[in-house]
Amino acid sequence: MSKRILWKDAWQAITHSLGRFIAIFLLMAVSAFALIGLKITGPDMRQTATSFFAQHHLADTTITSNYGLDSRDRQIIRQQKSVKQVDFGYLQDSTIDQTKRALRIFSQTNGVSSWQTVSGHLPQHDNEIAVSYLLKGKYHLGQWITLKQTGSLKHRQFKIVGFVRSSEYLDRSDIGQTTVGTGQLSGVAVVKKSAFKTGTAYAIARVTYNQTAKMNPYSTRYTNYVEKQQQQLKRALNRHGKTKQQKLERQLKAAQQQLALATQQAAVLQQTDAGAGSSSALIQQAAALKKQQARLKQLGTPTYTLSDRTENPGYAIYRSNAERVDILANVFPVLLFAIAALVSLTTMTRFVEEERIQIGTLKALGYSNADVAKKFALFSLLASSAGVELGAWGGFMVLPKIIFKAYAANSTLSGFQIHFSWSLLLTTWLIAILCTTGAALWALHRDLKAKPAALLLPKPPKGGSRILLERWHWLWNRLSFNYKVTMRNLFRYKSRALMTIFGVAGCTGLLVMGFGIRDSLSGISSIEYSRIIKYDLIAVQNSNSTAKQQRQLKNELNGKSVKGHTGVYFEQLTKKAGDDDATQSISLIVPNNEKNFKQYFAIKNRQTKKTLKLPQDGVIISEKLARLLNAKKGSSIKLKDASGKWRTMKVAGIMEMYIGHYVLMSPPAYQKIFHQSYQTNAQLITLKKGAKLQQESQRLMATGAVKGINQNVNNQRTIDNIMGSLNRVMIILIGLAALLALVVIYNLSNINIEERMRELSTIKVLGFYDQEVTLYIYRETIILSVIGILMGYLVGIGLHRFIILSLPPANAMFDPTMTLTNFIVSALIPAVITAGVAMAMHRKIRSVDMLDALSSVD
């Protein structure tokens, strides 16, 4: 039996049902675009970073010490069996003369944590320097800069010969803190190693390990391996540190004895004219000994700091951003495909029902079930495959670039790498086939079991029956004829009504979620740094400052720029927590005066809005820290202090806090938990209106009594950048949800009109105007859309709650509040789309040929 006509008919079905074909094509394209794009972006971002780190041999561990790294330290590091390569270098923090910009100047490395040249070249002479490309707009090649603090550098003036990108500093805005200038770094730079004075101890060691080159740097295996190697290395260094401490104690004792002897000799010689010259030399010797003694006291006990990659500025944030995309990929595309599958099922089911008589004809002519199914399989396969092809192209090539660009606004990483995944493409294609071809064959299966004679007869219309509203006489009797017909049709075509409700509810839910996350992101930094944290900066005091420096600090704190200040004890605690078991930095603040402290820090519970009082024997912790530690009021938590000791503390309250981890306690609680007397070591400072933060920071650092400053404006800028990136991603997802709503509402409306064309023609013949005919259909659509929007609110609220708990990084939480505007806009978008589709359908209804539609199908 010839099948040429059968194939011709199958191809003609596409042109005859072009609207249906395009609808399925768009549904699959949008769904594939979101699924592939979001699923591949996280791995693409990680692979881009991994390739960059491998290319520049980023150190697995960096080692610093307050006394520098002497020959024995270097020997211990090299002797570790796991060490593949180690590079020892120098660094110096300095401000550029006549500016407030502070640079951290490193010596060139030899193969570890290398620098990427953006323009110019790396230094080739001792008086040449290459600075961060982020400062390219402020300086130019060939320009000479003068450094205010030379320290261990040989020269004060340097010529800029290049702009570089550091493999260790990935954050654009928060580069780090320093002890010079304003206390905040403006950039990093590199000079030749020979530009530093010889004979000084190395300041930093960078280490790579043998096994890590083959590991994924974002894997738990890598993290555990590096941690194990660090522990072994630190134990070996600490043993040498104890020996060094004993040697330093002997030096300090000898210096004290020499100082006492020199002072006595100087006093005796000053009484004779002959000994005036010798006295002067002894006085100079005594001064030098005093300086050495002060330095040894200031440095204190030899300590070693071993840092992994997560402590590089921007490293953890970039990793967190990639993980945020993974979370969205597990939620957003799933709902998109669910809606697409639902609408595709309706579309293909209607297509099969329209071809009922032709199916019966083909079966009567002797064609097999497989021959009959070819038309529907070809139609759905082409529509879905073409949609997946277009969506996959955008998902692999376009969406990852857009999302990376949004996040790259905060990162120095560049050279985004796009990767292709056959498994992801085939999985998406199979899902699309199940949603379309699977739905068509499922709908066809019922008709293929029927006899040809039954199929050649038109499907009998659904019988009418009393509906629930008719039993409510007080309501039913008040309805007009048109509304009574509408209500009957709603209950008569239940499956069509449910499809419309679910389709609109899904799209509205995605919009509510998207706008809700925007609500939760917006204004977090403003709330954090105006309503909760009210001070402008924290000045951490130098414990070894002189009486003169302390007086200068006091004068500055009482100066015209400072509105107020209060003393606190400030320390950074740590704890590994979260899904990735990363080290969390926790700020411990112990106020000297709780009453004054309330002017600088609002301690409130978010749910109850009640002000919390600092207890005598417990602590108050921030809300996100409580979530990470699964802590509640009355729980006990363990945190590690700066000396590496674990401190157990009881949670007495949980306070509102969106960014960062905080622990607050009273002085009596501090003394009980830390077993030592309380004393302030920092100042919370609020500046007067109009005061310049950078200038005040510089003046505070210049007193010598302050060793570090943490400016809220820098924290706020970092938060705004992170939230801004997420916000841009959410705009993309909101756009996809709106596009899906358009396709769904158009397709369902088109199906509804096509299915009821004879009914519409009948009422037109009875004398209904075109506008009345359109309203006859669209009253149902409007009612179903309103129900769908209300259901979508519930879906969106649930999705929003899940996302705001899962999406934020480990050191932040989102505001769970959703604004009324969100719900209004989320309803307005499908409402406007429904109105626009109604106008398009109105033109279609006006052009209906009533005689053709009412012609007999028998």
From TrEMBL:
Occurrences of domain ABC3 transporter permease C-terminal (ranges): 330-446, 731-841
Membrane topology note = Multi-pass membrane protein
Domain MacB-like periplasmic core, by residue range, is 500-699
Entry-linked InterPro entries: ABC3_permease_C, MacB_PCD, Membrane_comp_ABC_pdt
**The organism's place on the tree of life at top rank:** Bacteria
Its main localization is membrane
Residue spans crossing the bilayer: 21-38, 327-348, 376-399, 419-444, 497-517, 729-748, 782-803, 823-841
Any coiled-coil regions, as ranges: 226-272
Per its UniProt record, what Pfam families does this chain match?
FtsX, MacB_PCD
Cellular location(s) = Cell membrane
Q: Which key words are in the record?
A: Cell membrane, Coiled coil, Membrane, Transmembrane, Transmembrane helix
Q: Which PANTHER family match?
A: INNER MEMBRANE PROTEIN (PTHR30287:SF1), MEMBRANE COMPONENT OF PREDICTED ABC SUPERFAMILY METABOLITE UPTAKE TRANSPORTER (PTHR30287)
The name this protein goes by in its record: ABC transporter permease
Q: Which organism is it from?
A: Limosilactobacillus allomucosae
